Amino acid sequence: MNSTRNDHKFLFGRAQALVGMVHFRALPGTPSSSMRPAEIVAKAVAEARQLESAGFDALIVENMHDRPYLADASGADTVAAFAVATAAVVNAVNIPVGVQILSGANLAALAVAHAAGASFVRAEGFVFAAVADEGLLANACAGELLRERKRLGAESIKIYADLRKKHSSHALTADLDMAAWVRAAEFFQADGMIVTGTETAVEPDAAELAMARATTKLPVLAGSGATPENLARIFRSADAIIVGSALKVGGLWSNELDPARIAAMVQARDNAK
């Protein structure tokens, strides 16, 4: 059954929620891997606690450092380490934790969320297809993903459909506006929608975000590009905002968390009308 905005408020604790990204350091088996699993876990837990203490309402754990990403798959060693780190984060904080495994490894993300006690999954490629920097993402995952959720008995885990995946060409679906994407994802029983900009740290198109909000009663999350300066404006069309790059030193996703940037983002949320 689809979620409602009230369900979203219950999950995140407020109508206008801030969701902070915890970017796991490169996991075992990936090209940039250099840290022992225990070090990766300790770093993730420290960042999660820092964001929770600052006032964030939820977190998403993600393997951003695992580039270049595999399309629709992840190695067993990567997924195993991801599950261990996710469980540690879930046990370290008292706010909801979501899971995203790049790129489009949604079945693995669901399995990790189920095993680790996470609350939701950010699913790329839920409906339609795209040409991404990982290659052709040809098969929408909704049918397989929801069947797996049912098989696991994991219906409590929300699935937020990441519409029009960033870092991708959408020429294949150029005749579809954002309303068509939202209707398709809602029909295929997504629990919420995520609307992003074209790349990491790029703000979603304001008209597309507003169209998504007007098309559905499901939660709509803005998935990129938020800053303290534009946060209130984005919240006019979003129930939650996912923030990663803007929390880091210099606004670069791969850098360390910046306490001053984190505090400014939380203050902007508290000041938003």
Commentary on this structure:
By secondary structure, the chain is an alpha/beta fold. It has one domain (5-271): TIM Barrel (Alpha-Beta Barrel). The relative contact order is 0.14. The longest helix has 18 residues, at 37-54. The protein has an eight-stranded parallel beta barrel with strand order 1-2-3-4-7-9-10-11, surrounded by six helices. Helix 7 links the parallel strand 9 and strand 10. The radius of gyration is 17 Å and the shape is globular. The chain is built from nine helices and eleven strands.
Write the layout of secondary structure elements.
Elements lengths: L4 H8 L4 E7 L13 H18 L3 E5 L13 H17 L4 E4 L5 H11 L3 E5 L5 E3 L2 E3 L4 H11 L5 E6 L4 E2 L8 H10 L4 E4 L10 H10 L4 E3 L8 H5 L4 E4 L15 H13 L2
Parallel strand pairs: 1-2, 1-11, 2-3, 3-4, 4-7, 7-9, 9-10, 10-11
Antiparallel strand pairs: 5-6, 5-8
Helix pairs in contact: 2-3, 3-4, 4-5, 6-7
CATH T-level topology = TIM Barrel
CATH class value: Alpha Beta
User: Main sheet, how many strands, which sense, barrel?
Assistant: 8 strands, parallel, barrel
Task: State the helicity in percent bands.
Answer: 25-40%
User: What is the correct CATH architecture?
Assistant: Alpha-Beta Barrel
| Percent of sequence in beta strands | 15-25%
Number of strands: 11
